[in-house]
Amino acid sequence: MKITVDFEECLKDSPRFRATIEEVEGDVCELESKLDKLVKLCIGMIDAGKAYNAANKQFVNGIRELAQQSAKDEVIESSLTKFAESLQEMINYHTILFDQAQRSIKTQLQTFVKDDLRKFKEAKKQFDKVSEEKENALIKNAQAPRNKQHEVEEATNILTATRKCFRHIVLDYVLQINVLQSKRRSEILKSMLSFMYAHLTFFHQGYDLFSELQPLMKQLGGQDFSNDDTKLEYNVDADNGIAMEGYLFKRASNAFKTWNRRWFSIQNNQLVYQKKFKDNPTVVVEDLRLCTVKHCEDIERRFCFEVVSPTKSCMMQADSEKLRQAWIKAVQNSIATAFRDKGDSGEKLDRKSSTSTGSLDSGGEPKERSLKGESALQKVLAIPGNACCCDCGQPDPRWASINLGITLCIQCSGIHRSLGVHFSKVRSLTLDSWEPELLKLMCELGNRVINQIYEARREELGARKPQPGDPRHEVEAYIKAKYVDRRFVRRPSDEELRTKVVSLSKEEKRLSSSSDHLPPKAPPPTPKLRPGSHASGQSVKSADSGIQNSADGSREMLATTPSSNSLADAEAAEAPPVPATLPTASPCKEVVFFEPKEYSPGLQLYWASFSRSLPDMAEALAHGAEVNWVNTEEDKRTPLIMAVHGGSLVTCEFLLQNAVNVNQLDAQGRGPLHHATMLGHTGQVCLFLKRGANQNAADIDEKTPLSIAVEAANADIVTLLRLAKMNEEMREAEGPYNPSGDETYQDIFQDFTHMASNDPDKLNRYQQYDPQRP
Q1: According to its UniProt record, where is this protein located (predicted)?
Q2: What gap in Å lies between CA 169 and CA 126, rounded to an integer?
Q3: Angle, to 10 degrees, between the axis of helix 649-657 and the axis of helix 614-622?
């Protein structure tokens, strides 16, 4: 309750004033009691929290010891190690939270109690004393006899002096009361707000941390460790010739229809079973090519399926729905393999799992997948300046900000997380998997490049850069000044900005004219028959089949993808840029530099995206460029569309990591996916589809990316677009039971991603889209 005292009322010293003063004093006394109690409770909470952290550290050490003991089991060791790292980081977050509670609740409220309430109490003592003196003076003045003039004058003088003193003291007391009431609100709320924001940061950091951990948890949670379901998989190349085996219940064909548990196996294109190990196998199906398999839901038992041949049928029951699906898929794959083996004169299909989970490679060698652990760490730390934390200089960093392209120590990574993902996206260099395009992004930027931008004026302003071991609040203040306020960024003059933009446009022309960057020669276009020709129907059919064959060929092409390309070689072979002057018949307008009406950081980002210069793009963003900036003088094109025309996958990835809109359209109604499809940039199409690009969007000519790819006969892009559409439909149909969609889709997209980053020449097999070509 806020009680204010009127100054005029206090001078009257009326009963109302005395009653108000009494109420205020009672309220302040109760406030002091409550604040003392709250501070004691806070101290107890902090002590309990420290004890919890100490016990939690021992628990985490126990997890690490268990992981070391389980070194022979890679799954247990890697999982427990990652869990221990995450829990250790949560302990660090808890420590920060308790430190904030110490500062905001205990220290701040204790200061309020000791300073402000102490001043109030001292003012109250003086008020009580002068009130008593005034009361005595009044009594003495009243008792002075009329006939004793010197006593009357003395009493009068004492009363006058006492009243003056009382007025000064009471005014000071009332002022202290009003100041206390006002400061009480600000101090208490400021203290609690600071504490609540500390909680907000704590839970936000925890959410980000476990969001990164969630894929591993889902992967482990999807495995059934309690039974042998996960051990059942179809393997056509098993050494003993048995593609799959396990227990099933079989319904007898007698009149009683009894169910018996038997050991079934698929071998030599046959389905067989046996009762005991020594028994000779009983053949259920002689030739799987003549069979079909289907679910059975019209009988009382669960998890049943039926294998039907021309002469008989066999009803079987699995132990779970997962096992039923595995057996049905195994039989289907066996049927397909039997036909293929027969057609290839007994040649075996070179793969090691079912079509839904198997690799698309046919060479038998495993492809390079997303880099993880020491591999990604070594490549990123090899960049000059990355061996120490970008912000405090702590050696051997283990974290990175992927949208800034820098490495961080664990303390600075926690501060970066608290800034929010719109400023910094933190990822572990050892615990997380790294996509090839993201790893190349990190290798093109680095601490030295970013610090030249974000710390350009640091020495000029006399700002001290944090050192390892500095207090967290000092490091946090520096990081916020550096990335949020951008206090140390040097703003370019208009002339410097103009020079930068012009040089970027000239750099692109130089790169485009270089023979090392020209695209490969396009194959001659397929001739089309005029309408009315007797073979017109046949020509259409041939064209369609050609596209389909190319789509099938793309899968074979994936099999020859090399698995060990260095980043340097891959970067040199990155998809070539579009020539500065495109054919006049192309729907992608000629990219030519015109003198703009106004130079801005957005224009710098626009041309830097085209010239594939990530440092200049990062500089433009630091200068305040809008990542979705629109060039109204150039058909409303955006930096992402210019990155597509520049032909670089990494520049597109950099913009996507900095929250660019992947579906922003130009004046022709075309988004980045349209442009990538028209230019035949398969790697960019794959990247945009993974990032949620709308493939159903139609431009002003009512053409979608798929219709453009079909017309251009680009089988790779047609395959990607159709797979993405199919996967989207499957996700919608299966809902929460399969949020990631089909596994084949994931495998194929991963293959295209690695090829686009590590061997892009294999994707440069098609000419650009031209609706007017013959």
Answers
A1: Cell membrane; Endosome membrane
A2: 7
A3: 20
List residues bridging with 400 in a β-sheet.
Answer: 407, 427
How do beta strands 313-317 and 371-372 pair? unpaired
Which amino acid is residue 258, in one-letter code? T
User: 594 CB contacts (<8 Å, ≥6 apart)?
Assistant: 633, 634
- The token pair at 22 is 């009494």
Residue 576 dihedral angles phi and psi, to the nearest 5°: -70, 155
For the stretch 539-567, pLDDT in tens is 333 333 333 333 333 333 333 333 333 33
Average pLDDT over residues 1-19: 66
Kindly report, residue by residue over 348-395, the tens digit of the pLDDT: 333 333 333 222 233 333 334 455 555 778 889 989 899 999 999 999
Token readout for 719 is 């395959």
Half-sphere exposure of 542 (CA within 13 A, CB side): 9
486, two tokens: 């951008």
The answer to whether 371 touches 439, Cβ cutoff 8 Å, is yes
Where are the alpha helices (H) located in 482-589, listed in sequence order? 494-513, 536-559, 567-572
d(CA 752, CA 724): 13
Q: Which two tokens stand for residue 225?
A: 């460790």
The answer to whether the beta carbons of residues 237 and 215 sit under 8 Å apart is no
**Higher-confidence residue: 286 or 341?**
286
Q: Which residues pair with 307 in a beta bridge?
A: 293, 314
Q: Residue 259: beta bridge partners?
A: 251
* Calpha distance 500→31 (Å, rounded): 63
Q: Which domains does the chain have, with CATH numbers?
A: 7-221 (1.20.1270.60), 230-343 (2.30.29.30), 371-484 (1.10.220.150), 497-521+541-763 (1.25.40.20)
Q: How far apart are CA 68 and CA 80, in angstroms?
A: 9
pLDDT higher than threshold 70 for residue 131:
yes
Backbone angles phi, psi at 284, to 5 degrees: -90, -45
Question: Which two three-digit tokens encode residue 499?
Answer: 């020079």
d(CA 313, CA 302): 18
Tokens encoding 302: 């669960």
* CA pair distance 727, 732, nearest whole angstrom: 9
CB 248 within 8 A of CB 261: yes
Report how far Cα 78 is from the mean position of its chain's Cα atoms. Answer: 22
Radius of gyration of the chain from its Cα atoms, rounded to whole angstroms: 38
As a whole number of angstroms, the distance between CA 539 and CA 320 comes to 51
Please tell me which residue, 506 or 131, carries the higher pLDDT value: 131
Q: Is 60 exceeded by the pLDDT of residue 535?
A: no
User: What's the gap between Cα 38 and its chain centre?
Assistant: 39
Alpha helices in 434-535 (DSSP H): 436-444, 447-454, 458-461, 472-479, 494-513
Please give the Cα distance from 325 to 6 (Å, whole number).
83
Q: How far is CA 646 from CA 292, 371, 580, 682, 712, in A?
A: 51, 26, 9, 14, 20
What digits encode the pLDDT tens for the residues 719-737?
Answer: 888 888 877 776 666 554 4
- Secondary structure (DSSP) of 37-71: HHHHHHHHHHHHHHHHHHHHHHHHHHHHHHHHHTT
CB 339 within 8 A of CB 289: yes
Report the first-to-last Cα separation within the chain, whole angstroms: 85
| Mean pLDDT across the chain | 76
User: What tokens were used for 359?
Assistant: 């690799």
What pLDDT does 126 receive?
A: 82
The distance of Cα 205 from the centroid of its chain, to the nearest Å, equals 13
Cα→Cα distances 341→257, 289, 308, 561, 622, Å:
36, 11, 21, 25, 60
Nearest to 606 by CA among 582, 632, 572, 583: 632
What the block records as the tokens of 210 is 């476990």
Report the Cα 367 to chain-centroid distance in Å.
25
- Whether residue 633 contacts residue 600, with contact meaning beta carbons closer than 8 Å, is answered with no
Q: Is 261 helix (H, G, I), strand (E, B) or coil?
A: strand
Q: Which residue has the tokens 């501070």?
A: 39
